[in-house]
Amino acid sequence: MKRNFNNWLNTFKESISTFDYYVDFSKVYRNVDKIKVELNILNSLIGSKNIESEFKQILNKYPSTIECIPILLAIRKNEIFIKQLEKEYLFKFDTFAHSIEEYCRFMSESGLFELLQNHLISNLYDYVLGVEVGLDSNGRKNRGGFLMENLVETYIQKLSLNRGFDYYKEISTKEIELKWNMNLSKMSGDGISKKVFDFVIKSNSHLYVFETNFYASSGSKLNETARSYKLLAEQSKQIDGLTFIWITDGIGWLSAKNNLKETFNTMDTLYNIKDLESGILDKIII
User: Fold this and answer.
1) Which of 103, 138, 173 is the C-terminal boundary of a domain?
2) Which of 122, 219, 246, 280 could form an SS bridge with 275, CB 3.0 to 4.6 Å?
3) Rounded distance between C-alpha atoms, residue 159 and residue 41, angstroms
4) What pLDDT shows up at residue 189?
């Protein structure tokens, strides 16, 4: 029975986010605890009437505190470039790259002295904790990819256990060729490009390679993804004993549905989470 693309698209999910998707608090706490002592030393500058003088004393006595400065500006690197001076400030205590006066200028011009001196914050530990939470939100995109992989893996794992099949994660075309004596040159440009599949299932007589992704928001990448996976599907049909399966989802596809539809119309093994929930893997993997 021929599937209806619009009906299929209407089952796409808005989100698959779990509780730990939004902020990785364990990572946040680890990052802040690494500099907890130095932050507490710098706390003495809060409300200081002679902040520049006291900052110099701290750097002389506790030079490691200099490495805390970038994170106060929500920067994880030890280097900060200043366009006005055409200069890069380095914040490493083992090799002070600049004079203490130059570091004082940085603190003043960047607004950090004002932040500390005018009681705009109560303590630096809590302040940096908030900074790290904000920076960690940038990692949601990567965590989103892992969420989809983890979700798909639960279905693959269950199938493999029930059927006694082996499955593998993140395995390359080269590894597949060596392990199962298959020629995948059609999918790797005669060995020029290296493709790593998210999952591989080896049944008694067939090999199934999987790609998975989830797009909660739109973007230009989606059109290219649809085109590239369509090409992979066409190439895989030229390889005996192998089936390429693409599992994708997310309302981000609504902005690129025409390209996805084109792939859907030519690829029999394009599925979404609803298909997994309906037991599609049990039907197609033999």
Assistant:
1) 138
2) 280
3) 56
4) 63
